[in-house]
Sequence to fold (326 residues):
Amino acid sequence: KFVNLMLVFVFLFSIVMTAGCGRNKDGVRRLKLSINTNQSQVDMAEAMQERIKELSDGKMEIDVYGDGQLGGDREVAETVQYGNIDMCIVSTTPVAAFYPDLNVFDAPFLFKDSAQAQEILDGKIGQEIAAGMEDIGFKVLGFPENGFRQLSTAAKEVHSPSDLKGLKVRVMESEVHIETWKALGASPTPMAFSELFTALQQKTVDGQDNPFVTDRDNRFYEVQKYIIETNHVYTPYLLLMSKDSYDKLTDEEKEIIEEAGAYGVSVQREKTAEYDKDAVQEMQDKGVTLISLTDEEKQQFRDAVSDIYSLVETKVEHPELFRKIL
Ligand code: PAF
Fold:
């Protein structure tokens, strides 16, 4: 075990030490990108790799580190902020710890559908957020689609907040998420994603929330029986680049990485929409029961969390930005 730990340490240490937007002897600019286990992130990384090679005539390349091997969302975002990894794809929620305005995306039932969310992210509000994040060391290259989060449980059929009483639900490490689940009557347990599968397997927690595709790609159907179509929050992904790494690029290289990023986001969004449908069917085939809610049941969820918006207003630095979205 000790030898294994040392090997992991040496591997991570060597990545960090050789970090940051280097040029090889042959003049090729290499950029490190960290992604997690989701297939749509793999597709996006491959699309970016191809496009960057094509646009730069092979003078720029992306080295992809998959399966979250460089760390969880929060750790990786921090490493990108300090320029030791060039790029990552992470959820907005953990990054709200560094940039509070991102808490707006943790507000439950904020968006009607993905199209509406994407319009806001690609418009003035997304640009405002991206401009603000430059001041804390991030260049935002786009907002890939994570999707709406759905509750899943090991044994409990949930139709309304009253069914959630005492249910231990793993949540992301965010006060807005914790308070949302408390308001719904559950017992929220904040936990790193890397610990989640084992926690579900060992029944330390009864359920969790993530988009369908994440549930499928992480095999949660092996340890969860019900998925409840709560659609309770849309937490987008961020394609982040270290501002330090970005500033080291020439003007032409900056244009190329921005174009490759935008292309990657468009491929990833298309793939996510496609996988979303497949994921539900595949999980049902493996024995998962999908519970859809009636309009009346949906309203009960909305009513239970109506006070969370005032919490979000206290968490963000620019409440007017939140009001603009509303
Ligand atoms: O549940 C989480 O922590 C996030 O949704 C995940 C899967 C790490 C993606 O950013």
